[in-house]
Design goal:
The protein has 11 helices and 8 strands. The chain is α/β, with parallel strands linked by helices. Bound molecules: 1,3-dihydroxyacetonephosphate.
């Protein structure tokens, strides 16, 4: 049986003080939450948020990570530095990284492998643009993002990996994939995973949906058999919108 995993990607928002306030509110509101919940503040707020959520079941995540453990990489953050702050999970290959910062599948794969090597749980983001979907390339694009992103990941490490399907056209636009559409893509991803590993591994993998998830659409999305959680952007920035998502059942 898969369990639900709800993650909040705070993107480039909030000062340290604002991040701590939200984290404290979430600790309070999510005491009875039955699902795994992760929050990913900006790098600058990780340390303070780590203190704020200490003792709660909320997992601390980072939004990105550099592809090396240490060295001359100006401006990058290594898995060692994240671990040092108590980070357990890391979002990799987000479409904003792929499209605005030209991250390739090869680079993202290096980050996934490095995260696993250092004991961080990667969330590998995949998703097609509207143009790719309309050209009939959805499966080719998402399939290769999954295959390339997981290259060299051993079956024994797969339990630490989450996939997030985030159609680029649904991010921050208020347009959500219909639950049926999203479920079909999740089922396809599971088929790719079964080909790469085996059916049992594919069936146990958590696949989150991301793209305009809100309190009023979360239940319909989560009711679908292949949707196991959410990666939430805008609605994760306020306790009043993230709590009902995390507490959806
Ligand atoms: P929104 O929920 O704002 O559409 O963002 C989704 C996202 O990109 C989460 O990583």
């Amino acid at each position: 049986m898969r369990s639900y995993y709800i993650a909040g990607n705070w993107k480039m928002h909030k000062t340290v003080a604002e991040s701590v306030t939200l984290a404290q509110e979430l600790v309070e509101q999510l005491k009875t939450c039955k699902h795994k919940v992760m929050i990913a503040p900006a790098f600058t707020a990780l340390s303070a948020v780590a203190q704020a959520i200490r003792g709660s079941s909320i997992v601390l995540g980072a939004q990105n990570m550099g592809p090396e453990a240490q060295g001359a990489h100006t401006g990058e953050i290594s898995p060692l530095m994240l671990k040092d702050l108590g980070v357990q999970a890391v979002i990799l290959g987000h479409s904003e990284r792929r499209h605005s910062y030209l991250e390739t599948d090869e680079l993202i794969n290096r980050k996934v492998l490095l995260a696993l090597e250092y004991g961080l749980q990667p969330i590998l983001c995949v998703g097609e643009t509207l143009a790719e979907r309309e050209a009939g390339n959805l499966e080719a694009v998402v399939g290769s993002q999954v295959r390339d992103g997981l290259k060299g990941v051993a079956l024994s490490s797969l339990g630490s990996v989450t996939i997030a399907y985030e159609p680029v056209w649904a991010i921050g636009t208020g347009k959500t994939a219909t639950p049926e559409d999203a479920d079909a893509v999740h089922a396809y991803i599971r088929q790719v995973l079964a080909g790469l590993y085996n059916q049992k591994a594919a069936d146990s993998m958590i696949i989150q949906y991301g793209g305009s998830v809100k309190p009023d659409n979360v239940s319909q999305l989560m009711a679908k058999p292949n949707i196991d959680g959410a990666l939430v952007g805008g609605a994760s920035l306020k306790v009043d919108s993230f709590s009902p998502i995390a507490l959806f059942v």
